UniProtKB/TrEMBL annotation:
Every VOC domain range: 4-114
Pfam families: Glyoxalase_6
Protein's organism: Streptomyces echinatus
InterPro entries in UniProt: Glyas_Bleomycin-R_OHBP_Dase, Glyoxalase_6, VOC_core
Name the UniProt record assigns to this protein: VOC domain-containing protein
Domain of life: Bacteria
Length: 117
């Protein structure tokens, strides 16, 4: 049996706006867009992707899934994402080597520090 990881689904109030935000933040390409869905990938033929799907109910609790990113330069990437509209978020993480941020709809993600050798 073989499984291929196709995508991560992100429920969104405005899939096109949030999907475009992430496409620009990650430098990914749009592979599908409709009124209720917006899919991006690293390249048209590369998986997995992120698929933003309309959900018209408000978020009720903290998300149980978030993405972690490991840049070459954490400080520069955090500054770039803040300039792009991300916000730093305090979720009680204390003093850590990663920075917790949120996208325009409040979905949290982490920008990790350098990988230990």
């Amino acid at each position: 049996m073989t499984l291929e990881w196709e995508q991560v689904i992100v429920h969104s109030a405005d899939p096109a706006a949030l999907g475009q935000w992430w496409a620009e933040a990650l430098g990914w390409v749009v592979v599908y867009s409709s009124d209720d869905e917006f899919e991006i990938r690293p390249a048209p033929d590369r998986l997995p992707g992120l698929d933003f799907v309309r959900l018209d109910e408000p978020r009720k609790a903290k998300s149980r899934l978030h993405l972690d990113f490991r840049p070459d330069d954490q400080a520069a990437e955090v500054a770039r994402l803040e300039a792009h509209g991300a916000k730093r978020v305090d979720i009680g993480q204390g003093d850590q080597s990663w920075v917790v941020m949120s996208d325009p709809e409040g979905n949290e993600f982490c920008v990790l520090g350098r990988r230990s050798q």
